[in-house]
Specification:
Elements: H1 11-31, H2 37-53, H3 58-91, H4 94-105, H5 108-126, H6 129-146, H7 151-168, H8 173-182, H9 186-212, H10 219-235, H11 244-254, H12 259-277, H13 282-290, H14 300-306, H15 315-333, H16 336-345, H17 351-369, H18 372-389, H19 394-406, H20 416-425, H21 429-432, H22 437-452, H23 461-480
Length: about 475
C-alpha cells in the first residue's frame, strides 16, 4: 500500500467504476426491482481492474478491500445487535408496550411531529441515530402504521429526529470526528451547526404539522386504533414497568457507556422479559433472537408489525455493507477517490463554491465509499488547506462536513446508513427520502449561507498568525524526523 503515492490516475479512469456502478444500479434496482448487491459487485470488479491497470498487484487490491471492510466492522456489530434487540424486545412485549401507550397519548394529526421530537430528544441524549432508530424508531413505526400513516412519512420523521440528535449531541461519533479532524473546539462546532440545523428542524416540523392534518382522527380510525390496542392487550402482558428497559438503555448510553455493552444489556433484559414476564419458553426466546419473533393474532396489522427482528433479519444488511465497503475500499486506497476530489477542487474559486464543493464532495463520498465516516474523513483531509488559504475558520469546514456528510448518507441506498434503515425500519430510500425533511433542507441551507456569506466566520489576524506558527512547527518536526 506504500506504493499508492507513486501511481497517478486520471479523472476519467477514476470515474469509470463509480459511473458504471451507478448505471447498473439504476437498471437493476429501478428497472428490474432487484437488490443493490450485484451492481456493487460490478463496481468492485471494475475498480479492481482499474487499480490493476495502473500498477497495483492483486495482493494490494485485496488489502484495499479488507481495509474497507475493517472500517465497517463497528457498524456491522451494531447492525447485528440491533437485530437481536428488535427480536428480544418484540418477544418481551417491550415494543408492544411502547406502541400501546403511544396509541393512547398521541393523536394521528400530531404523530409525525411528536415522533420527530421524541427521536430528537433521545438521540441528543445518547448521541446515536442508529440506536434511536433501532429502539424508539421501531416502536414509532408500529404506532404510526396502526394509525394508518404511510410508512415513508413515519420513517422520514424518525430519521429527521434521529439525525438532529446525532448531529448536535456532544456524545455523537460523527460530531466529535468532524470537530477533531478540523481542529475545531467541539462546542464551537456544535454552536456553529445551530445556524443550519435549527432552521432545518423548524422547517421539518412545519412540514410534519401540515402532513399530519391529513390524518386527523376520524371515527373509523378511532375504532381501528382501539381494536389494535385490544389485540395488543390480549397478545402481550402490557405494563409500564417494561418501559424501564428502553429507558435503561438510553440512560446507559447517555452516561457514556459504549453502545455495544448498552445494547447487550437491553437484549438480555428483553430476553428475560419474554421468558419470565410474557411466559414464553427458553426455546421461543432463543428463536426470537436468532430468526425473529413470530406471532399469529388474527389481526393482519399486528401480525405484520410483530413478526420480525432477530439476527437472521440483519444478514441482508450485513452482506450489503460488506460488499459496499469492498467497493469503497478500492476507491479510497487506490487513489481513485482522491483523483475525483482533486478535479472537484479545480472549480473552487470563491468561499461559496468552496463550501458548496465540500458538501458535494461529502455526498459523492457517501455514494462512492458507502460509509458515513469516510464522507467526513476524506473531504476533511482534502479541503482543510483550502479553508486556511481563504482565511476561513475551521468551524466552517466542520459544519459543512456534517451538513454534507452525516445528513446525506441516508439518501444512498447502498450506504451503510441507507442499508441500516431498510433493515431496521423496513422502509426504502425511495419511500422515506422525500419525507426526511431535516436531511434534505440542511445541506441546502448550508449552501445558501455559503453563497450569501451569512454565518460564515473568518479567521482573525491573531488566529492566522497562530496557524502559521503551528504549520512551521509541524514542518520543522517533519524535517527533524
Amino acid at each position: 500500500m506504500e506504493r499508492q503515492s507513486e501511481k497517478k490516475i486520471g479523472f476519467w479512469l477514476a470515474l469509470l467504476p463509480l459511473a458504471l456502478m451507478i448505471v447498473v444500479m439504476i437498471i437493476t434496482v429501478v428497472k428490474l426491482e432487484q437488490g443493490p448487491h450485484m451492481p456493487l459487485i460490478v463496481g468492485t470488479s471494475t475498480a479492481a481492474l482499474v487499480a490493476w491497470k495502473i500498477g497495483f498487484t492483486w495482493k494490494e487490491i485485496e488489502e484495499m478491500m479488507y481495509k474497507g471492510i475493517r472500517l465497517a466492522l463497528p457498524a456491522v456489530v451494531i447492525i447485528m445487535l440491533v437485530g437481536l434487540t428488535i427480536g428480544s424486545w418484540m418477544g418481551g412485549g417491550i415494543v408492544a408496550t411502547m406502541i400501546y401507550y403511544g396509541l393512547q397519548i398521541i393523536t394521528p394529526s400530531w404523530f409525525l411531529v411528536a415522533i420527530c421530537l421524541i427521536c430528537c430528544i433521545v438521540s441528543l441524549a445518547i448521541g446515536s441515530s442508529w440506536s434511536t432508530m433501532g429502539t424508539i424508531g421501531v416502536a414509532g413505526m408500529g404506532i404510526g402504521l396502526s394509525m394508518g400513516i404511510p410508512a415513508g412519512m413515519i420513517a422520514g420523521a424518525i430519521i429527521s429526529g434521529a439525525y438532529f440528535g446525532d448531529k448536535m449531541s456532544p456524545l455523537s461519533d460523527t460530531t466529535n470526528l468532524a470537530a477533531g479532524l478540523t481542529g475545531t473546539d467541539l462546542f464551537d462546532h456544535i454552536k456553529h451547526m445551530l445556524y443550519t440545523t435549527i432552521p432545518g428542524l423548524a422547517i421539518a416540523l412545519g412540514v410534519y404539522t401540515f402532513l399530519g392534518n391529513k390524518f386527523a382522527t376520524s371515527k373509523m380510525e378511532a375504532v381501528e386504533i382501539a381494536q389494535t390496542a385490544k389485540v395488543l392487550q390480549e397478545s402481550f402482558l402490557i405494563s409500564p414497568w417494561l418501559l424501564l428497559i428502553p429507558l435503561a438503555v438510553i440512560v446507559l448510553v447517555a452516561t457514556k457507556v459504549p453502545a455495544v455493552p448498552a445494547l447487550i444489556i437491553g437484549i438480555i433484559l428483553g430476553f428475560l422479559s419474554q421468558v419470565f414476564v410474557q411466559g414464553d419458553t427458553l426455546v421461543s426466546g432463543l428463536e426470537a433472537l436468532q430468526s425473529g419473533f413470530t406471532i399469529a393474532t388474527g389481526n393482519e396489522m399486528v401480525d405484520a408489525l410483530f413478526n420480525g427482528g432477530g439476527l437472521d433479519s440483519m444478514m441482508y444488511t450485513v452482506s450489503m455493507t460488506i460488499v459496499a465497503m469492498t467497493f469503497g475500499g478500492i476507491l479510497e486506497f487506490s487513489g481513485m477517490l482522491k483523483a475525483l476530489m482533486e478535479q472537484l477542487m479545480k472549480i473552487v474559486k470563491s468561499t461559496g463554491s468552496l463550501i458548496a464543493s465540500t458538501i458535494g464532495a461529502c455526498f459523492l463520498t457517501n455514494a462512492s465509499c458507502s460509509e458515513q465516516y469516510i464522507s467526513v474523513v476524506v473531504p476533511a483531509r482534502m479541503f482543510s488547506k483550502a479553508y486556511r488559504e481563504k482565511g476561513l475558520h475551521s468551524k466552517n469546514l466542520s459544519r459543512a462536513l456534517e451538513d454534507g456528510g452525516t445528513l446525506t448518507s441516508v439518501f444512498i441506498p447502498w450506504n451503510t446508513c441507507g442499508v441500516f434503515i431498510l433493515g431496521t425500519l423496513g422502509v426504502s430510500v425511495v419511500q422515506y427520502g422525500p419525507y426526511a425533511i431535516l436531511n434534505l433542507v440542511v445541506p441546502l441551507i448550508s449552501i445558501f449561507y455559503a453563497m450569501t456569506g451569512l454565518t460564515i466566520v473568518k479567521l482573525t489576524e491573531q488566529e492566522k498568525k497562530e496557524l502559521k506558527e503551528q504549520e512551521l512547527k509541524n514542518e520543522n518536526v517533519g524535517l527533524e524526523s
